[in-house]
Amino acid sequence: MSDLEIRPVVETDLDAVVAMLADDPLGAQRESPDDLTPYRAALRRLADDPNQHVVVAVREGRVVGTLQLTVVPGLSRRGAIRSIIEAVRIHADERGSGLGTQLIQWAVDESRRQDCQLVQLTSDVTREDAHRFYERLGFTASHVGFKLAL
Amino acid sequence: MSDLEIRPVVETDLDAVVAMLADDPLGAQRESPDDLTPYRAALRRLADDPNQHVVVAVREGRVVGTLQLTVVPGLSRRGAIRSIIEAVRIHADERGSGLGTQLIQWAVDESRRQDCQLVQLTSDVTREDAHRFYERLGFTASHVGFKLAL
């Protein structure tokens, strides 16, 4: 595979990023790739927040992966900083290429660089392949993830 | 029970908050209530971040509960804002008083006020009472929570 670049998302990436968010069994019902207006507003808000890092993986000029890393200070664990990974997506053409591992490794390295002591994420209970993937990378399924839609 | 106030944490609350973080089967090994230095540094960082809301519940001048609410913008779900609840602690004297429900309700109300579309949290798999508590409040255990210590 040719070289991969992982860099912050910019507005011209939005088409490709939203297409990946929508190309997913769970994402298909939640996204609106034909109307980028809400995504543009969200991108401006993300850009204003120094603890938010939405990145894209680019190969040969094409956006082929994305994830969001949030840095969360806190009081517990002696004032530990933790990071949270959300919205991991790999382009269908790249599945099995090792790109998922490279993206998560980027997030772990960046978390270390920002003095985080813990990286955490949640994965839908139906995504069993994803669970095996995170366990292979050293994550422990130690928690139950609860959600409440408002 | 007398009136309850829920308000942002301040430095003079730290003693009581750290004592609650440490008075917990999992927290006992992780906290250092005799040395508040790391907690003071963390509190300054939290105060500088407009998306962080660490609150305390106060009854008759005593700090009896705490939680951290983090507001997280994002691209997925049409640019939805979500909130994350962490570090929920209720003083031993107040367990069963309904204070946990009041604190979580505060977090849900504040999340709505900040236009969040989703509230999420993770709970250690061993905290079965907590799981029943969150389900009674309408949360769904739809996810597996993964952690990686750095």
Relative strand content of chain A: 35-45%
Strand order in space, largest sheet of chain A: 1-2-3-4-5
Going by helix content, strand content and strand pairing, the class of chain A is alpha+beta
> In terms of per-residue confidence, which ranges of chain A show pLDDT below 50 for 5 or more consecutive residues?
none
User: What is the fourth-level CATH superfamily of chain A?
Assistant: Gcn5-related N-acetyltransferase (GNAT)
Radius of gyration of chain A: 16 Å
What report would you give on this structure?
Two copies of one chain form a homodimer. The first copy, chain A, has 150 residues and is of the alpha+beta class. Chain A has one domain: Gcn5-related N-acetyltransferase (GNAT) (Aminopeptidase), CATH 3.40.630. The first copy, chain A, is built from five helices and six strands; from the N terminus they run βααββαβαβαβ. A five-stranded mixed beta sheet of chain A has the order 1-2-3-4-5. The longest helix of chain A is centred in the last third of the chain and has 15 residues, at 99-113. Chain A starts with a strand and ends with a strand. Strand 5 of chain A pairs antiparallel with strand 6 (140-149) of chain B.
Tags for this model:
32% helix; 150 residues; Aminopeptidase; globular; homodimer; alpha+beta; five-stranded mixed beta sheet
